[in-house]
Amino acid sequence: MRQHIDQNTYRVWVLDSIAELRPEDRGQIIVCGSHGGHSAAEYALAHPPRIVVFNDAGVGKQAAGIAALSRLEAAGIIAATVGHDTAHIGDGLDSWRSGRLSHLNALARQAGFRLGDPVAAALERCARRPAWRLCRLDDNGNRFVMARRLTQAQADSERARFEALGHKQSYWIEIDDAPAPNQSEQ
């Protein structure tokens, strides 16, 4: 199952599985029913969302059910889990409707997420924070927006990655004041 839920100022993509993530989901808000393990991190890193919420799947041995949180933090992605006792594993809509946050990475805490919060309340608080975009100025003075709807950490990480390639272009990050997807973009 894959569906979007439009809130006042933002859109949430609800997926039963993180494997349903698509290239166009880069920079989006994702709530899914998947566990938050290493394999879930791989799917999320393939098309990095701005925010992703998983199910903690009972956490498991060596915290396997939440292993994605630290990996995604390193990539600048806000990540959290809902408790397995608050939402059915594999049911993204149940995570959206009744999931309560059980584990957070540092970026989620900085974004205003709190343990025990309903998912919608945490996302509403976070949506008030600005999104960032990565921009480039080429050799001919043309300005391009390379990526939108990123966290500040994601945007800065991408800027550093492009600068390290040694191209002559200039890169910078700025607040992304583009309208929310449900207002003018799809």
Layout of SSEs?
Blueprint: E1 2-6, E2 11-15, E3 29-35, H1 38-46, E4 51-55, H2 68-74, E5 78-82, H3 92-98, E6 101-104, H4 106-110, H5 119-127, E7 132-137, E8 143-150, H6 152-163, E9 170-175
Parallel strand pairs: 2-3, 3-4, 4-5
Antiparallel strand pairs: 1-2, 5-6, 7-8, 7-9
Describe what this molecule looks like in 3D:
It is a single chain. The protein starts with a strand and ends in an 11-residue tail after the last strand. Strands 1-2-3-4-5-6 form a six-stranded mixed β-sheet, with helices on both faces. The protein has 186 residues and is α/β, with parallel strands linked by helices. The chain is built from six helices and nine strands; from the N terminus they run βββαβαβαβααββαβ. β1 and β2 form a beta hairpin. Residues 180-186 have low confidence and may be disordered.
Main beta-sheet annotation: 6 strands, mixed
What is the spatial order of strands in the main beta sheet? 1-2-3-4-5-6
Q: Count of DSSP E strands? A: 9
Low-confidence spans? 180-186
Based on CA atoms alone, the radius of gyration comes out at: 16 Å
Number of helices: 6
Envelope shape = elongated
